[in-house]
Amino acid sequence: MNCSDLNNVTYQLGIILHPPEVVNEKFLIKLRDCFLNLAENHPVKRWMKWMSRSNPLNKQELEIQSFLSGIINSQFNLITDVKVKNKIINLLYEIPEDTLSEKLLKSYLYLMIGNIARSDNILKDIINRSPRLSWVQSDFKGSFYHKLSTDFASQLFAKISRHPADRRIFELFCLYLLNYYNDQSLLDIAGEVDTSSVESTLGLAYTESLAPSLVHYLRVARMGENNRIQALRDLKEYPLNEQSYWFWPFINIDPLVSDLMNPELLRIEKEDQLWFIYLMDNEKLADSFSKRHGKSFLPGRRPYLKSQLSNHQLFMMSLYKLIELGDISQDLVEKATFHITND
User: How is the chain split into domains, by residue range?
Assistant: First the structure.
């Protein structure tokens, strides 16, 4: 990369969307060489200033970090000391549940004070949300607890997986991540968890009751293609409103595409246009819909996607589609910079 490349909006967007924690040091050095020649309002310069901001923990946060580090790295599966237990309970009131990491931390702490039901219910709520609903909760700017939990992710997964309580919900949580997420560091950690116990009971009614749609997907995903397509034609067992959110974007549905899908697609187009656009990634599905209704799905979608850039939760999903459509502009870069740096 040359400094002149930073005049290109595609380069700018690629840089500011790169996760700060995995930025190559040599690349940063190269950017610093270009830094002085950039205008103060240049998106990459603003991003670099945001990256370099030092937000040291205050005294209270340092104490909490030290306390939770001790709990997470201890060999115990249950806290019985009343003073320590009360301190954990007080922290549980403070920890938000806005991100996956925050929820994982709370689940673990409930486990440590013996409230297994509450611990499981936090994870159960996650695995019963469609991937689309989970994705919109992703955020660049997590809380202090989000960052702490992310730093201790490996230890948290290991401690929860080894707990002597029934681990089926946690194992389903790991399978949910492995099937519906693409954060490689998270997948590596979740992939270390032994999920063979719950996988061997996917056919049981009890396991299905824990997370019906997820278990349906896991069962179908393990079938050969012919059996999979045959199973999904059973709309009583696998209704279309479940398939459209849990199945269609994640497996090859080309042999399944038919006019039977159109009522569901029309419903989603009306009620959840962003997800409809994602479903139209399937070329055969898009062709079938266009021929059936005499219109292409694409015209008119760009203004909708651009309008969603003002929606904090839908920003990244909308931005991704605009990039995919080739709508990269200086205005788009500016909005992405503001979203990430809040500057």
Answer: 3-52, 71-199
